[in-house]
Amino acid sequence: MADINDADGWTCPVPLRAETHIVLGHGGGGLLGSELVECLFLPAFGTAELAAAPRDSVVLEVGGVRLAFTTDSYVVNPLFFPGGCIGDLAVNGTINDLAMSGATPVALSAGFILEEGLDMAVLDRVARAMGAAAKNAKTRLVTGDTKVVERGHADGLYVNTSGIGLVAAGVHIGPERARPGDRVLVSGAIGEHGVAIMSVRSGIEFGTTIRSDSAPLGGLVAELLAAAPQIHALRDPTRGGLAASLCEIAAASRVGIVLDEAAVPVPEPVAAACGFLGLDPLHVANEGKLVAFVPDAQAEAALAALRAHRYGAGAAIVGTVTDGHPGVVVGRTPLGATRVIDRPLGEQLPRIC
């Protein structure tokens, strides 16, 4: 155990904004990560015009065909947890990023960074989980790459996945498209993935086993689009939780959002765990849920479509988009008070996906 008096050995996931070196908070889906992308990567890559509307996947037109493309890396610790492992998490997460653009997944790639000394049985278990997850989502793993680094340099293994999908004509979904009057829906209970990882990593028992909600959402989005074809925005609230997703869309669309916190489905074990740990469930990561911005006239049809699907059975309407306080999310608490809901600076729990 590190000496608590040795400041050089400290690790802080939420550092000062003037930090001049990479810290864990830069990978947490909060303000630090956004600043890294907007102020360093986008100017360097020459694509600064995308900074105003960060996306889960980009939609490109190639030869008259609209393709969604995404990539993601997974460094979750531990590799195995209640409800899944790094393998199916990687497949589901990439499929979900494509689905948030309204795309039907076509094919995925998989890249592995393996640590010397990794038990072959562990790698086999992860690979089989990936294959099963791809089959469950009706897509294919078609290409990949493997690299091995010295012992002690990769914490077992890391996975990178990329994916492509087809976007149908007339489907235009993006974080900049939310409009006043839209209703905000979530597809089910929030916070399960983050609390599942915390419980295993910290060895904390909450009286029941909380399982990750990791799941592929491509089929759910297809059903949602059939019922509500004018969906404006979709987002899977992973790192930074529901709060980060709402704040990103409010900023990109320059609209205000009023969240009815009492309507947000938070399982009792998750609420209890967050209360014990001093966490806000709105900031806790999810891996099998979506948030949708739907015109008011289609909101009930969208809700019914979500609830009819196994991955949306707990769906609820949780908020409304307004032209007041643009770029700001306001929560109405169960006690009738209001508060500003902001994005976390970094991350409550590093390496959660």
TrEMBL record:
It holds the Pfam family AIRS_C. GO terms for biological process: protein maturation. Residues 179-328 form the PurM-like C-terminal domain. Residues 56-167 form the PurM-like N-terminal domain. This is Hydrogenase expression/formation protein HypE. It comes from the Bacteria. Belongs to the HypE family.
